[in-house]
Amino acid sequence: MAKKKSKEILFDPLFENNPITVQVLGICSALAVTVKLMPAIVMALSVMAVVAFSNVIISLMRRYIPMRVRIIVQLVVIATLVILVDMLLKAFAYDVSKQLSVFVGLIITNCIVMGRLEAFAMDNKPWASFLDGIGNGAGYGLILIIVAFLRELFGNGTLFGHKVIPQWLYDHGYMDNGMMLMPAMALITVGIIIWVQRSLMPQLTEKE
Amino acid sequence: MKFDRNSNGYTVLFMSILLLVVAVTLSWAFMFFKPFYEQNKRQEKMTDILYTIGLDKDKLEEAAKTKGLSLSYEFIKQYFDKYIVKQVALDAEGNEVQGVNAFDIDLKQEMAKPAEKQVYPLYIAEYDGKKYYIIPLYGKGLWDDIWGYVSLESDMNTIHGIKFDHKGETPGLGANITEKWFEQRFIGEKIFDQNGNFTGIDIVKNWKDETNKDDHKVDAISGATLTSNGVEDMINERLKHYVPYFKKQQKQ
Questions:
Q1: Which of A98, A173, B17, B76 counts the most CB atoms within 10 A of its CB?
Q2: Closest CB from A67, A69, A90 relative to B40
Q3: pLDDT per residue over A67-125, tens digit each?
Q4: ipTM value
Q5: pTM of the prediction?
Q6: What digits encode the pLDDT tens for the residues A27-82?
Q7: Domain extents in chain B
Q8: A73–B18 C-beta distance less than 8 A
Q9: What is the rounded distance in angstroms from the CA atom of residue B150 to the CA atom of residue B12?
Q10: How far is B11 from chain A, CA to nearest CA, in Å?
Q11: Contact, B157 vs B137, CB < 8 A?
């Protein structure tokens, strides 16, 4: 594998190699926390912080980790960071942390995090690993925010809890679509995003 | 540096150092964040108690806005102290226990003791010219603890407001006990029958008669029978300990 430039490391996971739409990882939490915009943003930032810092830590230790227990070491690092993020949210963003409930804890099992540690941080320098973490976290967050935006807008008629759909639309018979609040519609929304992305980027489509 | 990083000795050493560092970091972080977390818990408790007497979050937010303040801990505390006129701790016979701060009673710890040794916290509120008795609830749901607050009107019989919360009930099923439509089912229900005997609340599956507020029955949540049973047990178990106190108050 040729060495990638910093810019590529950072921006590739946003579109061309997006963890959700191209690698199809981390779908479960993407469905669960995207009912409203605010928790989705907090979740995106939490995952970004966890991937970036666990990438750096593992990259710093990569020459010293005993190979036979490397997965355990990775898990210990991820779990520690997730608990720290969880405590931070409980202390300074209590309401949001209640809405996210178990899903912050479940970042530990998010395959994006371990995937990046195993695939990237184990054989790259700390700075490159940091960028890779930020990039992948942002790629994950971008999809989360798009999905949450659509779901909150069409499901509740609100954004960040504020009404944005004007009253006269409701007066003319417009209705919020409760379906959008169901996890099934989140999956369909992610599917539509994948479809749009693949039509715009034909290089992603598998050749027959 | 030349070493064999796959030897047993090194692996054990590496893991020991790693775990030590992690343990120290986490305990330090826990100590650091704890005061913030506890203040949030207290704020939530006060907000929940105010909610049961009709001061919901929207009203508090509006009140804060007109004064140009945010919905901070200090603001909630000020409101709490204004409307919660009395906080008492009761013993099993309904007498007030002196020297116990009702707000700091940990129900989970209390409920581990036998009933006659527990202290029972009670909040008395005066809001909009009416008197309310607020009783904290604590019990077991399907997966984990559930808790809440119920406010009774000045007759010490009719439920005025109720608030539930849970640690880990199933989302979409048992977790729905926090929803407003579930709370609404309790409002107006009575906990004593016409002869003044304690009946509590009966949560029944498929109970269609929600307009009748004298039957002590409310509809359960479909698909969450065990959580609903937990809520029923919690309400009845907690409320029955306050009966001696209510009887005494009514005699006066």
A1: B76
A2: A90
A3: 889 999 999 999 999 999 999 999 988 888 888 877 888 888 888 898 899 888 998 89
A4: 0.77
A5: 0.80
A6: 888 888 888 888 899 999 999 999 999 999 999 999 889 988 999 999 999 999 99
A7: 86-251
A8: yes
A9: 54
A10: 6
A11: no
